[in-house]
């Protein structure tokens, strides 16, 4: 080595040797705040970006000429009617009202010369209430929300001719949440609100400035919301401040420069649909939606208009934003649109065909799922899916129910039976005790059926499509071990009209940001709900095991909704029973004869009942106007039903018994599909024993034996004993101090306890009055003390005592406790009937039954089955169920013995230890100031039973809700003629719940879907107790073929029927539908 020479490189740097000036580090919060100030109102709005959003405007005559016609008496006239009236001049600044009134404006628009060439011209209209823009010839175009929200309507190209053009605006005097006084939207509406028309301007929009505004909104959010230890947060702050530094008021160049700078953060395509074509893998799928409550803080009539406004908006947005997919549920809303707004319906239909407007949900309305009967839940899907199929050619695959107050454990099974494998919801994020642990999971029914359930992790179904919503789609995602994708359901609900152009622009920026700097979850638009679930199902079929949740999705809030608006709930129960009877009788009549199955009337009745099961109607959370509406609708349902029943009675050859009728040929009218033996009063203190099977039961005279079969005695002063063969009931002070089962030789009332004791609680929940009852109400328990008890009935067949209890100066309750003669081999029960005058404020009335039975779980009837819930408060999950939903009965049983409490119209119950408690009445004052005030009639019963909960309870509860009716038959008619041609024998846990005609039978169908040949009968059978059950359908009808079908009545499996017998086996809690083809 050696001898080599190296040239030594001299390091030359241009880096200045001396510091030129001091440079400070940014103070983050100050530079962050500066970003907001750049786009906000206030002292700088004439100097910041806002000042450049418009490029000129015009208002007043001659450019905007206004005239108005005020619709009289709060009416909502049609376009044709309204525009036939004389309009009077109107101007900006005038007030319109009162609440709920409608005002039609003629708006004559002449674009001023200097604006004719501007890029984008809009009409800005704001009266702080909802409106609809109509063409001059009567086509509804777009909704307006008011109050700064959705105030723009884009002027059509043809308006740029310098001539006068005309539109109409239909103004509705309500805001998007009705007419609440002040800021508390759940207070009863103020009937006297007035609305000022504050703006009616032609505005030339500076489109680039508007784009920069959205750019800055999103980059500003990144600067504010990304973690401060991320480079992406610092970069956002830098880019935003660079944009502000570049801005010069009045300089369009500076706007363009700002947009260029913003691209450093958002990428090149952040203001176009192209942004979604980057080919990168998204994980958040945005879907536009508009949650329109079918009634709530406004009546149905307003909902019809909200639907038309909102969905027109969406059709319009789709034309401008090709990535926009909008999804909406509720067949009833589509039907209204078809009836009242055919122009909009056709627009929607065209978009459905294109795939951008996507019907979802498969149900008639977004209904409550706690209280409707099993058959009602079935019909929600039958009527929903049939509407979607007949109008759009396709059924829905996803059950969509973001906003309801708890989810029945049988929903997954019914979804599957209605052709739906997926379920979307959200409300459980409102739980105020425990956090629900999953985002995407398999939800499993009582019978084992499952659906994939997804709850959007952004925890809203009305997202504003904010940066934060996109972020939360990952930060709040609880199922990322299995799958990290999620839905982001965005768009203003109710009167807000769904997604806005701002939402769509913001999401474009979000996607651009994810692809440019990252960190934000990558959001995608252009795919629908079904695409999202298709991917999940595919992952599952490739071996991805989603976690499971078995049984009900109990909602830990809104527990008052099982009780509020008692009358409405009673009407629900009664109408369900009436429809059951009509369908059964009409099915059999129409098969045996040429009796015309009244399909149209039945459809109208069902659609009414299903509508009233909407998630703010049946639960009792709507304003008074909505209950006026539902009362009227139920009255119509009952009127139609009575008429059909009358026709059916004359077909059966029976008639009602009047006081004048001779007491001859009396029979008991029955619609329960099993043997019954009951005492039936035949008037004048006389009674008979109705016994048999079928629709008409023979009545035998009640034999009065030497030792009376039921007695009542005042054994000591104020102490009464009612007794029959099986039970001894001791009543003192209005409550039952002892209920002794003579056969089982055991006391039923807990030691020292008082059964049938009325109690009252203070009921002031944290906020949602009609909705909520909070655990602390239990601490305010007060026993009501009764007045004297009297014997009110002492007949050979039945005895009763009556007690009147004062609740307050204005309210009272009169309770009859009755015991009937017992039949050998049939469990006797104690029956209560009460009449209540209820004029309370924020109180909760209940009746208690402390029983000598011990179990850590109680059972509650639910749709097609039973739910077991804890009777203890071990964990917060157990405690949260301090008030739960039941149907016709609740039961507490231990090994060998139990007690069931039956009811005829109630849904709220609690079992705490051995204390059973039936909820009777509440008195919330918001949103209906008069909820539940007035007179109520309620029946309930205590049914003790040997053995555990069994078919005795299930069937007695049915019978209790379907009392036999005394009728008179023509001499020629013998009850045997009317023995049921269809019977179900076998395991007594099997219930033949529904008998009806096939929807598409040629003599029944109304033609919405293709007809089937011949006549068929549909039978719905379920296992009521949770065990594999075998039975036989026996029929005397000439059945050609028999099928097991789904609830939509699609044939699935052909079954063998031999000599009129069809053997069936059901899974525990299975709901099975059979179609007998005649
Ligand atoms: Zn809702």
Provide a compact summary of the structure.
Keywords: Glycosidase, Hydrolase, Metal-binding. The protein is an alpha+beta fold and 1078 residues long.
Q: Supply Rg.
A: 34 Å
Q: Could you tell me the strand content as a percent range?
A: 25-35%
Derived structural class: alpha+beta
Distance between the termini: 110 Å
Helix content estimate: 10-25%
Q: Give the strand order of the largest sheet, numbering strands 1, 2, ... along the chain.
A: 35-36-37-38-47-44-43-40-41
Largest sheet: 9 strands, antiparallel
Mean pLDDT: 96
- What's the total helix number? 18
Uncertain regions: pLDDT < 50 for 5+ in a row? none
Give the overall form: elongated
Give the names of the bound compounds. Answer: zinc ion
Describe it for me?
With 1078 residues, this protein is of the alpha+beta class. The protein contains 18 helices and 56 strands. It has a nine-stranded antiparallel sheet, covered by helices on one side. It has a six-stranded antiparallel sheet with strand order 3-2-5-10-7-8. Helix 3 runs antiparallel to helix 4. The longest helix is centred in the middle third of the chain and has 29 residues, at 624-652. It is elongated and about 130 Å long. Degrades free oligosaccharides in the vacuole. This is Alpha-mannosidase.
